[in-house]
Amino acid sequence: MSIGLEHYLVLSAVLFAIGLYGALSKRNTIAILLCIEIMLNAVNIAMVAFSRYVASEMLTGHVFAIFIMAVAAAEAAVGLAIIIAIYRQRGTVDPTDIDSMKR
Amino acid sequence: MPSQAFWLIFLLPVISFVLIAVLVKPFTRRDSPVAGYITIMAITGSVILSIWTLAEVLGAPHHEIHVPDITWVVIGDFTIKMGIIMDSLTAVMLVVVTVVSLMVQIYSLGYMEHFVHHDGDTYTRYYAWMSLFTASMLGLIIADNLLMMFVFWEMVGLCSYLLIGYWFHKPSAANAAKKAFIVTRFGDFGFLAAILVLFANTGTFDTAQLSDMAAIGLLGGGALTWAAIGIFSGAMGKSAQFPLHVWLPDAMEGPTPVSALIHSATMVSAGVFLVARTFPIFAHSIEAVTLVAAIGAFTAIFAASMGLVMNDIKRVLAYSTISQLGYMMLALGAAGIVLNHEGHVTIEAAKAAVAIGIFHLFTHAFFKSLLFLGSGSVNHATGTFDMRLMGGLRKVMPWTYITFLIGSLSLAGIWPLAGFWSKDEILITALDGNKLLFVLAMITVFMTAFYMFRVIFMTFHGEYRGGESEEYSHPHESSKVMVLPLVFLAVLSVGVGWWNLGGNFAKFMGEHHPHGVNLFNVFTSSPWPIISLLLALAGIGLAYLMYGSKLISAEKIGARFKMFYNALINKYWFDELYENIIVKKVLLGGIFAGLQEIDANGVDGMVNSTASGVFGSGNIVRRLQTGQLQLYGLFIGLGAAVIAIVLFIVN
Question: How many residue contacts between A and B have a Cβ separation below 8 Å?
Fold first, then answer.
């Protein structure tokens, strides 16, 4: 059985779904951040796979994947900083409690 | 004569107004009469140009000079032009307005002197507005389209407001000014509506084009009738026709020369002029001309009856003005009826038909301004307008007496003065138009002669009854600058009637003379001029018996016909009717209260229910906004999934 585009896409979709589910359901903000990272990497897999199978002469997909990694790193840094700040102020990282915009 | 000169007739008073407002007022002493000199010079220029114009128009083919238009407003492919219509009607009106205005301005130099030196008034404000007033009237006369006419029409109204309320610190003057403005506004509404109706039906404002369209039947039927009635309602307001006559007697509150100008050449004659200008439209609607004639005749007798009992000399003259304006309207309307009886209504015939009404306007302007200026002269001597406090002024004010007498005789229609010629032509036209209107007009002749000579006997004959205060205990003749205009106007009041002796004026107004409108030789063929003359003499005789020789006691007659006398002295309670019933009950109590209800419950209710609806639905919808980030994420995910599924199924 050769590995084709479909296999990568299915893997990407499964990872994305797992990440999405986690991001929507976790009660810990750090876990949500991790799940978002999973979603981003699911996208990366899809990008690279498309690049390899659909337009192998172009490097667009690879370049995008590298960009996403860089952005994800920055996002993780900023996100974790925010989470620490919130924890210091409110003593919790439960996203259901972080609703001061509403109240 | 270059066409710029025509514009200059109108522009000279405008320039004078601007000069006075911008240069004279800030840079001269308060009591400096230089504003008066500027106005007089400007209007003298207008007089000269007007007379020149009249001579040119007299010599021009069809008595009409073409003047190129100036483009005023361009909206897309629709252009509004400012233009001059220079026909016989314009030329005659120009001369009337400028000459009377000039006399009034000269007279005002003397008249206002007292107020400038004693009451702290200034010449500048007075003359600035007088210039503007004259300019507006001249603009109205030369305008060749209804839109331009409407602009100047409103400016005339504005200036009359300013001048009637000249002594605005007096509550009565301020109220009179407001009354004049608001009452005439009722009529103006009709005029504006008529302009819009005409424009909607024809797409033009030009009076000549409108006349053409009416003549060939492009404009006709209900639209024409309603437009004519709307225009007439504007004329009713300005010319103080019943039931919009109430403002004119109160307009006495302004300085007397202002009254003279309002009552003769400007403002009130604007209404008659408007009907005359648009007469080719009126003439095609028998309903409209009948209405004009009926309102005119009724106003003539109605106002004359009130003039019989007034004790204020200016009020008598005011009612006489309303009555005379009624005559002019009657003349226009009756001429229209006669035209319609004959069937074929052409533009030329319609233009010629206004000759009789305009001729009376022409003669009336001179003797009515004379009478008003005379009453101002009397006021200067006695300090009052109440005739019960006058008497015996004949000896001390010979010039005022003689000129006033000439004006009164002319107004009463005594041969051979100007009023005789113009009035009898109206009577004969009325006879051809409608017998009832003719009878009303005949009774008015008697009344007119009576009340004018009541004024003469009460003011100038008998013993002086006034002089309670030291200043007015010895009345004296007014200064030369006031007497000279009186004399000049008196000469005109004697002379101008002769213009039409051979029908020259009528020929000048229009070439066409259908049978029945050509009345200018009636004086030899009909008995009515003699009869009306006898009626007028009878009126003078009765006035002599009651107020001259006092053989008949006026008090006894007043006591016997108490009810009638009360109705007259209270002006038929029209002020009360308007004030208490129409304004307070119908408008404030009824319509305005109803509108208030609609506003409070309907309009405000709609606004309020919209607001509370938004508030309520917001209250429900805001529950969706939980502030839970993950819930939003879930909705986004579900939404994206739904879109993906839908796209998948569609493809």
Answer: 24
Q: Which residues of A38-47 are buried (b: 16+ CB within 10 A; e: fewer)?
A: bbbbbbbbbb
| Encoded tokens for B248 | 């004119």
Cis peptide before B529 (omega within 30 of 0): no
Q: Parse chain A into domains and list their residue ranges.
A: 5-90
ipTM of the shown complex = 0.76
Which helix or strand (DSSP H or E) is residue B640 part of? helix B629-650
Structure tokens at B427: 């009577």
Dihedral sign, Cα of residue A68, residue A73, residue A75, residue A76? positive
Structure confidence by residue, pLDDT tens digits, B283-299 = 888 888 888 888 888 88
Within 10 Å of residue B606's Cβ, how many Cβ atoms?
10
Residue pair B231/B191 in contact (Cβ under 8 Å)? The answer is: yes
pLDDT tens readout for residues B187-221: 888 899 988 988 888 888 888 888 888 877 777 77
Distance from CA of A94 to the nearest CA of B (A): 11
B193 neighbors B274 (Cβ within 8 angstroms): no
For domain A5-90, the question of CATH label 1.10.1670.10 is answered with no
Distance from CA of B648 to the nearest CA of A (A): 16
- Residue B69: what are its φ and ψ, rounded to 5°? -80, 160
How many other CB atoms are found less than 10 A from the CB of residue B117?
Answer: 10
Compute the nearest-CA separation of A65 from chain B (Å). 22
For the stretch B356-373, pLDDT in tens is: 888 888 888 888 888 888
pLDDT digits over B43-102, tens only? 999 999 888 888 888 877 777 777 777 777 777 777 777 888 888 888 888 888 999 899
CB B477 within 8 A of CB B91: no
Type of residue at B509: M
Partners of B74 in the β-ladder: B79
**What type of residue sits at position A58?**
M
What is the secondary structure of B422-442 as a DSSP string?
HHHHHHHHHHHH-HHHHHHHH
Specify whether the CB–CB gap between B234 and B187 falls below 8 A: yes
Size of chain A, expressed as the number of residues it contains: 103
d(C-alpha B210, C-alpha B62), whole Å: 19
User: Å from A101 to nearest chain B CA?
Assistant: 7
Chain A residue numbers touching B633 (CB-CB < 8 A)? 20, 23-24
d(CA B484, CA A81): 102
**Mutate: best of B622, B623, B628, B630, partner A, most A CBs <10 A:** B630
Q: Tell me how far apart the alpha carbons of residues B296 and B303 are, in angstroms, rounded to a whole number.
A: 10
Tell me: the pLDDT tens digits for A7-25?
999 999 999 999 988 988 8
Measure CB to CB from residue B634 to each of A24, A102, A103 and give the nearest one: A24
Kindly determine whether residue B627 and residue A103, on different chains, have CB atoms separated by under 8 Å: yes
Element (H, E) at B169: none
Strands (E) across B62-132 are located at: 64-66, 70-75, 78-82, 85-87
Nearest CB partner across the interface for A102, out of B625, B633, B637: B625
Query: Which of A9, A16, A20 to mutate against chain B (most B CBs within 10 Å)?
Result: A20
pTM for the model: 0.75
Q: Is B610 exposed, middle or buried (0-12, 13-18, 19+ CB in 10 A)?
A: exposed
Residue among B627, B630, B637 whose CB faces A101 most closely: B627
Distance from CA of B610 to the nearest CA of A (A): 26
For chain A, which residues lie within 8 Å of any Cβ of chain B, measuring from their own Cβ? 20, 23-25, 32, 95-96, 98-99, 101-103
Of B625, B627, B637, the CB nearest to A24: B637
